[in-house]
Design goal:
Elements lengths: L5 H7 L1 H4 L24 E5 L8 H10 L1 E5 L3 H14 L6 E2 L1
Parallel strand pairs: 1-2, 2-3
């Protein structure tokens, strides 16, 4: 018994992928490597039940640069905001 090629399976099921495939992002500037001694634009943190970083470090970083936090839902975002408020994080420099 032979199996169809991956291309044939994709073509046959193309209608299922139209909601998954997103159009390409348009870059505002050319991507570049971050220099070791260059300036920082911000900090990216993922919240998955815990940060893995001390809240004092997160609060300190939020004073100087933009703090971008990845969350899985709106309720998780609200929990993180509550944690940030109690930890002294500068919410004016936070995005989710």
């Amino acid at each position: 018994m032979s199996f169809p090629s991956a291309e044939r399976v994709e073509q046959a099921n193309e209608h299922l992928f139209r909601f998954i495939i997103r159009p390409r992002m348009i870059l505002r500037r050319r991507p570049s490597a971050i220099p070791e001694n260059g300036s920082d634009d911000g900090v990216l943190i993922r919240y998955g039940g815990s940060f893995g970083l001390p809240m004092s470090l997160i609060a300190e970083m939020s004073q100087d640069v933009e703090l971008k936090t990845i969350v899985s839902s709106v309720s998780t975002m609200n929990s993180v905001i509550s944690l940030y408020q109690s930890g002294g994080v500068n919410l004016a420099n936070c995005t989710f």
